[in-house]
Structure formats: structure tokens, C-alpha cells
Amino acid sequence: MVPMRAIWNGAITFGLVNVPVKIYSATQDHDVELHQVHDEDGGRIRYQRRCETCGRIVDYEHIDKAFHDGDQTVVITREDLASLPAERSREIDVVEFVPTDQIDPMMYDRSYYLEPASKSAKAYTLLRRTLEETNRTAIVRFALRQKTRLGALRVHGDVLVLQALLWDDEVREPAFPALDERVKVSDVELEMSEQLIRSFESDFEPQRFTDDYQQQLRALVDAKLASGEAIEKPTAAAGGEPDGGGGEVLDLMEALKRSIERSRAGGDGAAAG
Questions:
Q1: For position 71, what pLDDT does the model report?
Q2: Which of 3, 31, 182, 218 maximizes the CB count within 10 A of its CB?
């Protein structure tokens, strides 16, 4: 398991209460990373930051941000961004405590684990227990990566979780004309639909679901590696035959089949790099 690294240090504050915490990303992307290459020689495709006014390639240190309203453009420098109070804030400021069921799941965004950052975890534990006992969620404001954010501070097992929330105007209202029409549903249709739902009823166990596409993509990568299709960095004149090294080169489909079977058997070899 890759050790987690704190991305933020600060404190939860409400009233005179101060709870020092560290923030860790609670989720991670398991997608196989792919990059673009030239189909003729496998060379890596690189993108250049080129100025459309002067035509020169620009180093990152000379790149600012800008806002364009359709007619005019204003440049926002690093100094401008650094002057904003939210960027310097190291507090998760509790605004209010609300019933947990009042938060629409549509508003939930990224999740973060909070770890107590002081020698004593008493204040942290007290807050967690209080949220549990009252079935409340703390609505908070905090700053992360140069953005002021709204968040929900809630309990997940023995850990406090900070879940970023979308702002109200970021959630779009559905406007579908078909929903305005009066549709009649008969009792028989409703009963049959309920029977169908009951036939699929189960308890949600997230570990039973896997990303089949990414598993098969990883198996494909392993198969290509096993069959000798890896591209070596050019160190000699092109055009020579690859040296098999005396080893047997597996048929691609056979290697792919073996990789999939190994993955289904629960082996971890497909994740080896």
C-alpha cells in the first residue's frame, strides 16, 4: 500500500474550539496511465506552450492566468492570486451544524480524510462523537489549491471526513419538457415494476464491483510486455531485428488469455510493473 501524504495542515475551528488536523485525499484514480506516441516510430508526443502573439515557446515561469469576457482580457498574476485571503487560510471554519439527511448527495464532490495533528486526539474524538450522537454534519468553509470551498464535515467509521460540496449555482436545474406532460401509470404497471425491483434487491457491497475495462487494459499491457512488444529507447541504428535473448516469445493472444485468467484467479501479478 502506498503511504498517504498530507496535502494540507490546519485546524477545524468553531467558536473558541480549535482542532488541529491534517488533510489526506480519501480517493485515488486506478486508471492505467497512457500517453500519446507517434504511430510510425513510437516517439513520445510532446506539447509546447507557444504564444499565439509572438510565436515563441514560453517557459512555465513566464505564464500567467487571464480572464476573457468576450471583448476584453485581464491578466491575473501570481502576485494577484497570492493577495487573496482565501489562499492563505489554514482553517476549516464551521458555519453551522445541519441534519445529515438535509444535504443532497448531488452536491458532494471530492472526499478527504482528516487526521488529528496534535499530540492528543481528545478534541478530534469529541467532535467526531458529537457529530455521531447528534446525527449532524458540519457545513464548513475552507481554502484548498487557491480556491475557497464549501464542505461537509462528517463521520466515516472512526475518522472525520471532509467532503467538498458544490456551490448551489454549480448544480444545474433539470429542464426536460417531457417531464411536464401528464403521464398516467396504471396500478398493474406499477406493481409489475415493483416486482422487477424486488427481484434485484440486495445489500450494497462495493467490493463486489470491479472496473473490468481497466483490468482488461492492464492485462493487455502485460500481454504486450510478455510478448516482447515493449519499445526500447533508440541506442543503435534502426532496422535491425530485435534480439530475443534465446527466450520464447509468447503469442499475444495466449499471453492476453493467461493475464486475464490470472486476474480472475485473484492473483496480483497483473498489477506488477
A1: 87
A2: 218
